[in-house]
Structures are given as C-alpha cells and as structure tokens.
Amino acid sequence: MNEATNAPDDGVRDVVVVGAGAAGLNAALLLGRARRRVTVIDAGRPRNAPAAHMHGFLSRDGLPPATLLALGRAEIARYGVRLVQGRVEHIDHGFHVHLVGGPVIEARRVLVATGLRDELPDIPGVRERWGRDLLHCPYCHGYEVRDQPLAVLGTGPGAVHQALLLRQWSDDVAFFPHTLELTAADRERLEARGLRMVEGEIEHLVVEDDRLRGIALTDGRVVPRAAAFLFPRMVPHDELLTGLGCDRDDNGWVVTDRTGRTSVPGVWAAGNVIDPRAQVVTAAGMGSAAAFAINTDLLDEDVDHAVERHRATAAAAGTTGGHGASRGAGR
C-alpha cells in the first residue's frame, strides 16, 4: 500500500507529476516502470469525487472513482514512485516545485495534471445533487438513467447540444431554457428532436427522501423529473502552467502538442487541465503519451551528457598518452 507522505524527497527527481488523477497516475506508472525517479504530488480533491461510479473505461466500467485511484496509487508504489500529499504553490523555471507550507522538490521535468473545476449555477439544490442525480456527461451517466423522465437545465451554452444528445437515452426529455437565450434555430432543432420545452426560470431542485423529484419554477409549477443534466462552466486548474508562461489558445486554455508538451521546455500537461472533454480513460491515455515523450526527452539529455563525459575522458586519456610517448622518446 502506498501511503502518502509529507516528507521531502532526497535528491533531484527525474519527473515531478502534479496531480494524482488518471492522467497523473498513469504517467507515473509508465515512468516508474522506465526506472525513472518520480514523485507525484496530490492535493486529494478529485473532480469526480461526488460520482458513485465511472463508466466508459474498458475493464473498469462501473468502478467507483475512488477505487480506481486507490488501485493506481498501489500500482505506482510497486515501481518506487513516491506520493506526496500536498498542494503545489508554484514552480520556478529551474523546476523547483514549492509546496504550500512544505518542502521544495527539484525536478528535471514536470508534468501538470491538475484537472479542472466545475463552476455550477447558483440554484438551490444544484451543489447538493451534483454527481448524484444532477449530472453532466451523457456518455458517463446517460445509460444509468435511460428511459426515465429527464431534465436539461439551460444554464450554459452547451445545454442545447446536451439536450439533443440525451434523446438517445430517453424519449422523455424536458428542456428548461431558464435564463438562456435560445435562437429560432435552436428551438426548431429541439422541437424536431421531440424535446418538451418548459419555459420559465428555475427556482430550485425538488428533493425528497434524498432523491431528485422535480424542477420547481418561480411561478410555482413543479415539473416531475427523475434526473437532470446541466453543462457547467469548466475552469482549468492551470495556475502552475500559466505561472511558468505556457502559451494559451484564444479560449484561454493551455496549448500542447499531441504528447502534452507545452511551449515551455521541460513542461508537459495532461488530462482535464488542457482538455475539458477528456473522460477518465482519455486522461489516462494522455498521461501515457506524456510519459513516453518525457522519458524520450530525458533519454536525449542523458545521452548528450554521456557523450560529453566520453569525449572529456577520451581527450584526457589522449593528452596523458601523448606526454608519456614524448617522455619515452627522450630517454
């Protein structure tokens, strides 16, 4: 069992991974198996903690998210990866990783896999039901609420697409525009898809016996529903990356190549911190791709240093040999 620790690391680490979700743990697993010195730092606040199960992960479908992380921590421990419980305050350009109230860990390379947070609308009941019967991803949870009366809350620009998609799982989907301004084209598409439109602002979620029962509107109506979906505003935990000066796209997200390499040499990123659509299995794959690239980058540096030492040793041997030959010829 890999117990998290707050003790400092001894010596420079090949890689420090910030974040122990699927992306960070999978990267650490591959790097540990490559016999790299790896430290994983985690604040212990996974995005999917409210969810009882995760889906769409081959061989792990239906597994509780916490169980996946526990299995991952145990696996990386077998390969000597060190797990540190804590929050990183900042990383300087020499890759000194500063923990809040804790040690400073020096690394040759850094992988940031800190995920994102879901910014939820201020509607009573939303936070309490989030991840339970108030859901976000149809691919993750749609099958579990199939054929039930569903609601889609119009609290963000992704709500229309979410509602159109959910019709694959239920014939009874009600769309609540709430304060969302719908175009004529949006309304036509929703109606053509067979969604029921419920006009009016949402007041609160109706909960009884610890279950969602309906959506209450400000005009006093209550529309019975068994589960609801909303599209949150996703905000990446990318402060460490932006603090290092990593480039961002027009939408403000840090940009990387296909391996997760950022614009700052030696810095990689993986998972939801750079891709809001990445599911658990996708994030794990991103961590794997980053680990391969990081190890290759380290290998190139190791070889360059070895060549420099080899040349220095050969030059020194040649100089010593030359003096010896000269002295011998003079005798």
UniProtKB/TrEMBL annotation:
Q: Where is the FAD/NAD(P)-binding domain?
A: 14-285
Which organism is the protein's source?
Answer: Actinomadura miaoliensis
A Pfam family annotated for this chain is Pyr_redox_2
UniProt signal peptide: none
Which reaction is catalysed here? [thioredoxin]-dithiol + NADP(+) = [thioredoxin]-disulfide + NADPH + H(+)
Instruction: Supply the InterPro entries for this chain.
Output: FAD/NAD-bd_sf, FAD/NAD-binding_dom, Ferredoxin-NADP_redctase_2
Q: What PANTHER family does the entry give?
A: THIOREDOXIN REDUCTASE 1-RELATED-RELATED
Protein name, per record: NAD(P)/FAD-dependent oxidoreductase
Q: What are the entry keywords?
A: Flavoprotein, Oxidoreductase
